[in-house]
Amino acid sequence: MNNTPKIKIGIVAVSRDCFPESLSVTRRNNLVQAYKEKYDETEIYECPVCIVESEIHMMQALEDIKNAGCNALCVYLGNFGPEISETMLAKKFDGPKMFIAAAEETSADGGLVQGRGDAFCGMLNASYNLHLRGVRAYIPEYPVGTAEECADMIHEFLPIAKALYAVQNLKIISFGPRPTNFLACNAPIQQLYNMGIEIEENSELDLFESFNNHAGDSRIPEVISDMENELGTGNKKPEILEKLAQYELTLLDWVEGHKGSREFVAIAGKCWPAFQTQFGFVPCYVNSRLTGMGIPVSCEVDIYGALSEFIGTVISDDVVTLLDINNTVPKDIYEEDINGKFNYEQTDTFMGFHCGNTSSKKLAFCEMRNQMIMARSLPEEVTNGTLEGDIKPGDITFFRLQSTSDCKLRAYVAQGEVLPVASRSFGSIGVFAIPEMKRFYRYVLIEKNYPHHGAVAFGHYGKLLYDFFKMLGVDVSEIDYNQPKSERYIGENPF
């Protein structure tokens, strides 16, 4: 299934009736032309029906962009703009929306006399009226610019709009409950509904029944062949592939059969303690494959972990993973492989790990193995099914969206990298470095009661994620990041 949306942004230019309408027409045309020259023109739609000056025009423009299949909106102030009708348009449009404004140009007809638009001023009135109407619209850091600059602003909004639309059309399917002794991934669902997300909570017995019904499925050999091609020489447990293929088909069929009215799906799965003994394997490799297909599957029924993974998938347009913020880097490894080679203190480094859920696309090498931790207390043959290997080095963003136990939304975003350092350990694992991780760990992760799971996007997406979380409705005081030494955390001892 296609599990991320295609966004088409309708560009509607507005004009205050005592300003020259021609300013908005010309500036809109220049903006659209600039976008087409630099980016994919199918991402935008220029509303040609009218320049919005009144409520009547607003309704005409709204109807036009809906008919054109637009699922996001850009209100463009070509001049001062009509604060009532332009914000009514945003209110009535059901989807992500942004506001930008035109900078002045002496080359315009009339220069800075008849050709002055005052959109710089109009943006202030627009923002005031958006607040009055309770409309949450994206406004760039500096929302006034030339045609080329405004084109860049729209393009930067695209992944944010994509993620907002995706979340509002998402269903999370869970199979649980959480394992015992695992309160860390407690998931109050009220905030899911507040964000427009649907959730379907199922029993492990439902999943087990469906899995058994897929025994002998005619598609299993094809899936096994695909797994063999993916694993290559890393196929160390060939005897388990038939069951894993059966389980993969079970999940994919469940998604298709249960997404209902929703366009997009993420899964929060169960993986222990009874899973291994009843299913006869661990699901890590299958989870990695679905996540690689763009259908994130979190471990240990981590509902907000699955949501975070899904957000990262849409924002980055790439595969993500979910890892434990797991263990420190030993001093000898730090001294041998990191100190003097990379600009990090030992306390900036840690290992991100999970049993085997990271897609092979993000591993430097991979092998199918058994889950060593589980095999300490269970027969090894029922713990097969992990994908082990070191995570590829490169830029990453560690992040998470979480509802607290009293149903408040909060999030963190921290940029860093996976270092080209051998882990010397097991599982899907990497040596991570995040500047000022020591303080971030204490005053964000511990102080604000985050669970140990974090989503990982492969690249630096901090700016986009921060803006997305604001647009989603997370209070800015509850969006944390790894602050530099010059910025003290609330509650951090100043002495």
Q: Major sheet: order of its strands? A: 10-11-16-15-14-17
| SS strand fraction | 15-25%
Number of domains: 2
Number of strands: 18
Radius of gyration (CA) equals: 25 Å
What overall form do the CA principal axes indicate?
Answer: globular
Report how far the terminal alpha carbons are from each other. 55 Å
In percent, how helical is the residue content? 25-40%
The biggest beta sheet, please?
6 strands, antiparallel, barrel
Helix and strand content put the structural class at alpha/beta
Could you characterize the architecture of this molecule?
With 495 residues, the chain is of the alpha/beta class. The chain folds into two domains: 9-167, Rossmann fold (3-Layer(aba) Sandwich); 169-481, no CATH class. The chain contains 16 helices and 18 strands. Strands 10-11-16-15-14-17 form a six-stranded antiparallel β-barrel, surrounded by four helices. It has a five-stranded parallel β-sheet with strand order 2-1-3-4-5, with helices on both faces. Helix 4 (119-133) links the parallel strand 4 (97-102) and strand 5 (144-145). The termini are far apart. 49% of the residues are buried. The mean pLDDT is 93.
Topology:
Blueprint: E1 9-14, H1 21-38, E2 44-46, H2 55-67, E3 72-77, H3 83-92, E4 97-102, H4 119-133, E5 144-145, H5 147-168, E6 170-176, H6 190-194, E7 198-203, H7 204-213, H8 220-231, H9 241-258, E8 264-268, H10 274-279, H11 284-292, E9 297-298, H12 303-316, E10 320-327, H13 331-338, E11 349-354, E12 367-370, H14 372-375, E13 384-390, E14 394-403, E15 409-418, E16 428-433, H15 437-446, E17 453-457, H16 462-472, E18 479-481
Parallel strand pairs: 1-2, 1-3, 3-4, 4-5, 6-7, 6-8, 8-9, 13-16, 15-18
Antiparallel strand pairs: 10-11, 10-17, 11-16, 12-13, 14-15, 14-17, 15-16
Helix pairs in contact: 1-5, 2-3, 3-4, 5-12, 5-16, 8-9, 9-11
